[in-house]
TrEMBL record:
Residue positions where 4-aspartylphosphate is found in the record: D57
Organism: Spirosoma agri
Alphabetical list of SMART domains matching this protein: LytTR, REC
Domain Response regulatory: 5-118
Ranges for domain HTH LytTR-type: 145-248
PANTHER family reported for this sequence: STAGE 0 SPORULATION PROTEIN A HOMOLOG (PTHR37299:SF1), TRANSCRIPTIONAL REGULATOR-RELATED (PTHR37299)
Molecular-function GO terms, alphabetical: DNA binding; phosphorelay response regulator activity
The protein's name in its UniProt record: Response regulator transcription factor
Length: 249
């Protein structure tokens, strides 16, 4: 297993201790270099420790987690936010975090986040970039996307999304379990996050998950059939882009 190092930042000592124990349990090879209760101390020490990942609380007195990252500027470590407040998820995405864990942190979710960290570091060190594929957005490294609905925030596994459909200033998510979620953001907002992954804009009102693509039916633009049997029109304007995304030129 790849040797990685971590720093933990949380103003609550009990949270730091609990997180340390869970990391040591699910990933004993990760070296915890230091823990900090004051973000300003972490900022001053980061250049010395040079960790691979920082597990970072958000809501802290004096300097919150976002302010700490802005203070550091360009960084070479990954960030996994650990917080009790789900409303910070979208801001965490914008800060290019590797993951966002809600307290109390479950060991399974922590292990998944660490596995993504290991995969990303291994890819950086050993693999070459395939220029034929879109470069992943930092946002896309989340396993879930925060969806703002009329009730609040929902955290939807990206692999469960079959397609998204625009409805004026709202967006409807169609999921593999048959559910539909109406989000209070435009399709473009979600396309900016999802399109660098396995999603493609095939029409001004449709974004599809290529992992759930079952069939393409020829036509002026054509039609795609998704894994749930739904059919989505491909516009003439997006047809060539769609072919490029599926590797059929």
């Amino acid at each position: 297993m790849m040797k990685l190092s971590a720093i933990l930042v949380d103003d609550e000592r009990a949270s730091l201790d609990a997180l340390r124990v869970k990391i040591q349990k699910v990933a004993p090879d990760i070296a915890i270099l230091q823990t900090f209760q004051h973000p300003s101390d972490a900022v001053a020490s980061m250049a010395h420790y040079k960790p691979d990942v920082v597990f970072l609380d958000i809501d802290m007195p004096g300097m919150d987690g976002f302010s700490m990252l802005r203070e550091l500027g360009t960084t070479d470590f990954e960030v996994i936010f650990c917080t009790a407040y789900g409303q910070y998820a979208i801001d965490a995405l914008r800060m290019s975090a590797l993951d966002f864990l809600l307290k109390p942190i479950h060991e399974g979710e922590l292990q998944q986040a660490i596995e993504r960290l290991q995969q990303k570091r291994k890819h950086r060190e050993t693999s070459s970039i395939n220029t034929a594929r879109p470069t992943p957005s930092p946002h896309a490294l989340f396993n879930k996307i925060a969806v703002s609905s009329l009730r609040g925030l929902m955290f939807v596994p990206i692999q469960d999304i079959i397609r998204l459909e625009a409805d004026s200033n709202y967006t409807t998510f169609y999921l593999i379990d048959g559910r539909k979620i109406v989000a209070t953001k435009t399709l473009k907002d979600f396309a900016d996050i999802l399109e660098p992954l396995s999603f493609a804009r095939v029409h001004r009102s449709s974004l599809i998950n290529l992992q759930h693509l079952s069939e393409y039916i020829r036509g002026e633009g054509g039609t795609v059939v998704m894994s749930d049997g739904s059919e989505v029109e491909v516009s003439r304007r997006e047809k060539q882009y769609f072919f490029e995304r599926i590797g059929w030129n």
